[in-house]
C-alpha cells in the first residue's frame, strides 16, 4: 500500500513540475540574482484549501485532492518592467520575470513517515538582464534577473524533523540565500543585493549557492528556544562544477569543488514597549570555502588587464552581522509601524575577493496611509567596497600604455519602493533605484577611458499568486 501511494505521489509531483517549468522554455533570452525571493520562513508551507487567496482558487478541486496525499504547493509569477532612464551603459527598458513553484510533500501524511518532508523548487526564468546590458553595476537591479532565461530546478531536498520539530536536518540541493543573512524588513526591496548580498555572488566561485543555482549539501538547524536558533551547513564549494554551468537545468549535482562551510546564530526576541510587541532579528555568522579562487585581476570586474596575476588560492572566508528591528507600532496595531535593518559583511582577503566590505541599511513602514494597512513603503541603501588590489595594476597599466582607465571606487545604491496589495492574489510595486559608481567606476565598454555614469532606474513589479 505504501509503495502504491508513493508512486501516486511521484506522478502528482511530476505533473505539477511539468506544468510549472515546461512553458518558459520558449521565452526570450535574458541572474539570484531570488531570494532574492521571499525568505523560506515567510513562504506558505501548505496549500490554502479554505480561503480564496490565489487567482485560481483551489484549482478546480486539485488543491484539496493533493492535500489528501500530503502535497501542497505555491505558484507565483513575478513580472518586472524596468528601465535605465539616465546614465549607465545605455538607456532602455526590459522585461524580467520568474514563475516560481514551491512544492512540499508531508511524508507523515503521505506514507506515515513521522517528521519527514520533501521539498522541490521549480523556476521558469524569463526576460533580459538590465544590469549587465544597460547599467554595468554590481548590485543587480531585479532579484529575479538571471541569465539565460530557461526552466530550471532549484532546491530539492529531503528533511527529517526531530525533538518536537526543534531539530531539522536537510540533504539535497540547497540555496544558501534561503537560510543565511536574511532580513525580514529588507525583503520588500526589488534590488537583489538586499537578499543574498551581491558582494558574495561576485566573490564566491560560480556565484555562490543562490538563486537560481543550488549546490549539493546538508543543512542542520536547532531551535534552542523561541528566541535562539543555530543553523549550519556544508555544501559543494561551487554550484557550477567543471562539468556543469549556469545554463544547465539544475539537474546536475556538481561535487569535488571544495567545501563551503557555513554557520549562523540568530536571536529573535519580542521586545516590549508599552502595550506594543516589537519583533527583532539579530544574526551573526560566517562562512569558509575551501574551493580554489583566482586572483582578483582575473575576476569579472569590468576591467581588462593585459597582464593579470595568474595565481589561484585555496580558501576564502567571510564574517557578517545583521540587525533587523521593529522600532514602532501604531496604536492598536501589531502590524502597522516602522522597522529598520542594517547588515555588514567583511571578506578580508583582498587578493582573492573582488569586494572586501559590504554594508546596507533601510527603513520600511507598513500601513503609512489610512485605508491601506498592508502597503509597505521602503527606503534602502547599499554600499560595496572593491578590493584595493585592483588599483595597482590599473595604475601601472595606465602608466605604461597611456590609457586612462578609471581607478576603482565603492559602488552605492539607493532604492525607494512602494508595495501595494491590490487583492489577496495580486501585488503591484513601483520602485526607483539610483546606482552610484556602477561596477566601482568600471569603464564604458566602448570607451575604456570613461567611467560608466551613475544610473537612474525606474520600474514596476507585479506579483500574481496562482
Structure description:
The chain has 466 residues and is mainly beta. The protein has a single domain (2-465), classed as Carbohydrate-selective porin OprB (Porin), CATH 2.40.160.180. The protein contains six helices and 19 strands. The strands form two sheets. A 16-stranded antiparallel β-barrel has the order 1-2-3-4-5-6-7-8-10-11-12-13-14-15-16-19. A two-stranded antiparallel sheet has the order 17-18. A hairpin with a 2-residue loop joins strand 15 and strand 16. The relative contact order is 0.14.
What is the rounded Rg?
22 Å
The number of helical segments is 6
End-to-end CA span: 33 Å
| Count of distinct structural domains | 1
Tell me how many strands there are: 19
Would you identify the CATH architecture? Beta Barrel
Which series of helices and strands comes N to C?
HHEEHEHEEHEEEEEEEEEHEEEEE
The CATH topology is Porin
- How does the helix and strand content classify structurally? mainly beta
Mind telling me the CATH class?
Mainly Beta
* Uncertain stretches of 5 or more adjacent residues: 1-51
Q: Taking strands numbered 1, 2, ... along the chain, how are they ordered across the largest sheet?
A: 1-2-3-4-5-6-7-8-10-11-12-13-14-15-16-19
Q: Whole-number average pLDDT?
A: 88
Quick one: CATH superfamily? Answer: Carbohydrate-selective porin OprB
Relative helix content: 10-25%
Instruction: Please state the overall shape, judged from the principal axes of the Cα atoms.
Output: globular
- How large a portion of the residues is in β-strands, by DSSP E? 35-45%
Largest sheet: 16 strands, antiparallel, barrel
Amino acid at each position: 500500500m505504501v509503495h502504491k501511494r508513493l508512486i501516486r505521489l511521484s506522478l502528482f509531483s511530476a505533473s505539477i513540475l511539468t506544468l510549472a517549468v515546461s512553458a518558459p522554455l520558449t521565452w526570450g533570452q535574458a541572474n539570484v540574482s531570488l531570494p532574492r525571493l521571499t525568505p523560506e520562513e515567510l513562504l506558505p508551507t501548505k496549500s490554502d484549501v479554505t480561503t480564496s487567496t490565489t487567482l485560481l482558487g483551489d484549482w478546480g478541486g486539485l488543491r484539496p485532492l493533493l492535500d489528501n496525499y500530503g502535497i501542497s504547493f505555491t505558484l507565483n509569477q513575478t513580472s518586472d518592467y524596468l528601465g535605465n532612464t539616465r546614465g549607465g551603459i545605455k538607456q532602455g527598458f526590459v522585461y524580467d520575470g520568474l514563475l516560481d513553484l514551491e512544492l512540499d510533500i508531508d511524508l507523515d501524511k503521505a506514507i506515515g513517515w513521522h517528521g519527514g518532508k520533501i521539498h522541490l523548487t521549480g523556476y521558469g526564468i524569463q526576460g533580459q538582464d538590465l544590469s549587465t546590458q544597460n547599467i554595468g553595476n554590481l548590485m543587480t537591479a531585479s532579484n529575479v534577473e538571471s541569465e539565460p532565461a530557461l526552466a530550471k530546478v532549484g532546491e530539492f531536498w529531503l528533511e527529517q524533523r526531530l525533538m518536537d520539530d526543534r531539530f531539522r536536518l536537510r540533504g539535497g540541493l540547497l540555496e544558501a540565500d534561503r537560510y543565511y543573512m536574511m532580513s525580514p524588513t529588507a525583503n520588500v526591496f526589488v534590488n537583489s543585493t538586499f537578499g543574498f548580498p551581491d558582494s558574495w555572488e561576485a566573490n564566491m566561485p560560480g556565484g555562490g549557492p543562490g538563486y537560481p543555482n543550488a549546490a549539493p549539501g546538508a543543512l542542520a538547524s536547532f531551535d534552542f528556544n523561541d528566541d535562539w536558533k543555530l543553523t549550519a551547513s556544508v555544501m559543494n564549494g561551487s554550484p557550477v562544477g567543471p562539468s556543469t554551468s549556469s545554463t544547465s537545468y539544475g539537474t546536475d549535482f556538481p561535487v569535488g569543488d571544495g567545501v563551503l562551510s557555513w554557520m549562523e546564530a540568530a536571536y529573535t526576541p519580542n521586545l516590549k514597549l508599552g502595550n506594543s510587541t516589537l519583533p527583532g532579528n539579530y544574526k551573526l555568522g560566517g562562512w569558509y570555502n575551501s574551493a580554489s579562487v583566482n586572483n582578483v585581476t582575473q575576476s569579472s570586474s569590468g576591467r581588462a588587464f593585459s597582464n593579470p596575476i595568474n595565481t589561484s588560492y585555496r580558501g576564502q572566508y567571510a564574517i557578517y552581522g545583521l540587525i533587523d528591528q521593529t522600532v514602532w507600532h501604531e496604536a492598536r496595531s501589531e502590524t502597522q509601524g516602522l522597522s529598520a535593518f542594517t547588515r555588514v559583511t567583511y571578506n578580508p582577503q583582498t587578493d582573492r575577493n573582488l569586494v572586501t566590505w559590504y554594508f546596507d541599511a533601510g527603513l520600511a513602514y507598513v500601513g503609512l496611509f489610512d485605508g491601506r494597512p498592508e502597503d509597505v513603503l521602503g527606503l534602502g541603501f547599499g554600499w560595496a567596497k572593491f578590493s584595493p588590489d585592483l588599483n595597482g595594476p590599473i595604475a601601472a597599466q595606465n602608466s605604461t600604455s597611456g590609457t586612462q582607465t578609471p581607478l576603482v571606487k565603492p559602488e552605492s545604491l539607493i532604492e525607494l519602493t512602494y508595495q501595494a496589495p491590490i487583492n489577496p492574489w495580486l501585488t503591484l510595486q513601483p520602485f526607483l533605484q539610483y546606482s552610484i559608481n556602477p561596477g566601482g567606476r568600471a569603464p564604458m565598454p566602448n570607451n575604456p577611458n570613461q567611467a560608466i555614469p551613475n544610473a537612474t532606474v525606474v520600474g514596476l513589479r507585479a506579483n500574481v499568486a496562482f
